[in-house]
Amino acid sequence: MNMKWLGILVLIFIADMILRKKFPQTWARVQLPINIAVSGLSLIMIVFTVVGTYQVVASDINTASKVLFILFAMAYIAVFVWANYRFWSTWFRKRKPGK
């Protein structure tokens, strides 16, 4: 289930890159829906990651494994936050008055 959402997110990201380079006018029209879709899917992935992290912390595995999993989960969440920031900052830069 988790990989399906990640696959959809990757497909949206690739479609965004192709539209941006090959069809800039179409990209300008669909950028807002793409940003909303990416943000929604990222939120779903972050929730899955937080729930999974909670389950690992509540389990009876050793502390070193828990710490390692938490570090990877934090990096995973940071990538989603960075990607959303990049998508939205590009969109807001295009919408500034005077440009």
Brief summary of the model shown:
The chain has helices at residues 2-22, 24-58, 63-94. It has 99 residues and is mainly α.
Please describe the structure with a list of short key phrases separated by commas or semicolons.
3 helices; mainly alpha; 89% helix; 99 residues
In whole angstroms, the N-to-C terminal distance is 42 Å
Q: In terms of structural class, how would the helical and strand content be classed?
A: mainly alpha
Order of helices and strands: HHH
**Unreliable sequence segments:** none
- The percent range for helix content is over 70%
Radius of gyration, in angstroms, nearest whole number: 17 Å
Count the strands? 0
Q: Which strand-content bin applies to the residues?
A: under 5%
- Say what oligomer this is: single chain
Total of helices: 3
The biggest sheet amounts to: none
The overall pLDDT, averaged over residues, is 84
What is the 3D shape?
elongated
Notes on the protein architecture:
The protein is mainly alpha-helical. It is 89% helix and 0% strand. The longest helix is centred in the middle third of the chain and has 35 residues, at 24-58. The N and C termini lie far apart (42 Å).
